[in-house]
Amino acid sequence: MLKVFSKNQYSGLSLARNALSRHRKWPRVWRDPEPKNSYDVVIIGAGGHGLATAYYLAELHGVKNIAVLEKGWLGGGNTGRNTTIVRSNYLLDGNAKFYEHSLKLWESLSQQLNYNVMFSQRGVLNLAHSDPEMESFSIRGNAMRFNGIDAELLLADQVRRSVPYLDCSQNTRYPIFGGLLQKRGGTARHDAVAWGFARCADAHGVDIIQNCEVTGFKMTGNKVTAVETSRGEIQTGKVGLAVAGNSGRLAAMAGLKLPIESHVLQAVVTEPLKPILDTVVTSGASHVYISQTDKGEVLFGGDLDFYNSYAQRGNLPRVEYVVQSVLTLFPCLSRVRMMRTWGGVMDMSMDGSPIIGKTPIDGLYLNSGWCYGGFKATPGSGWCFAHTIAHDQPHMLNEPFSLERFSSGALLDEKGSGAFPNAH
């Protein structure tokens, strides 16, 4: 169980006393309750999206009798297995307005939660490697500005000055023609986001129940009436699925087949270095994205392993490809040691956009299909999902993300304009 200091423990004497006690006197951030027999709402998945949903349900909609069920430990899934990039640089209106709302929530999230989520607006720079790509960035940038989102098209010389360690020579495999910069984008601390939402949800009376695996659903006709778990049956009238790459498996327990596939996405981190990169750099042509953490590690990732899997591990060939792409852009990193790799499970929708809304099963709500970019949507996703559950209908921001769009043909297909080149 995570522990932190309370307000009256910030003095040096208190810090020393708690350190000498080997943390035994530190207060708990959230409770560790036993599950009750029934709840008004059950959220499955104690990652960022599930915890944010529970928090906004309690904070904005007055729903207090809520349980968040987690088969492992809080934040142990994709929330702890991503590269923490936050942005809203999308082309299509549906995506642009939703992610911009989420970015605005990010900008005040530490104050809202009274917990430092370490949101750093260091900027997100998408590199262009050809004239056609510069033209597409110009179109996307104009669309962003039309929607009130900041965007700046940079020429090659401006990119060179902004990222001095980037190889901008003409002899490189991926020559730099320019880039699209969103200065308000950046990064956040993934575990701090989960902890902040958990602490505030718990303060509202939300029961966060770890080590509680969902094993099935009980139905009356077409309506969910209970959730079966490894710790007993829990009765409820509303269930929200927020389990990332495991969405297909849980939905199948309720007899629902989803238009998604689950894939492995890997990331890599190097040994700590002195500051060399003060922004996030992404490249669609080389399928790579790079940033430097507050600890000095260079963090990078790439494309999917492209085989269906629910495993949180990947294969060496994808790591090798990503490393090659990184060294093409940043040759100065060739002697740096790679410290560790990890994999997350991506639930890939058929149009690259998420699914947030009701399902054909009464009382069952779905938050899935986040593809490469679920972390950046954390507050916006929870905000919209909470509204949908509380009112039994979507908010206008997540109305385009309904499950029905795959049968009606009203897809939100960015065709690489938003999701693919900035995969994270």
Summarize the structure in words.
This protein is an alpha/beta fold and 424 residues long. It has a domain at 120-184 and 261-349: 2-Layer Sandwich (D-Amino Acid Oxidase, Chain A, domain 2). Helices cover 28% and strands 26% of the residues. It contains eleven helices and 18 strands. Strands 1, 2, 8, 9, 10, 11, 17 and 18 form an eight-stranded mixed sheet that branches. α3 (93-107) packs across α10. It is globular and about 65 Å long.
Short précis:
The chain is α/β, with parallel strands linked by helices and 424 residues long.
Fraction in beta strands: 25-35%
Give the CA-CA distance, first to last residue: 28 Å
The CATH homology group name of one domain: D-Amino Acid Oxidase, subunit A, domain 2
Q: CATH architecture of one domain, please?
A: 2-Layer Sandwich
Mean pLDDT across every amino acid position: 92
* CATH topology heading of one domain: D-Amino Acid Oxidase, Chain A, domain 2
Global shape:
globular
Q: What is the CATH level 1 assignment of one domain?
A: Alpha Beta
- The ordered H/E elements are HEHEEHHEHEHEEHEEEEHEEEEHEEEHH
Number of strands: 18
Number of helices: 11
How large is the radius of gyration? 22 Å
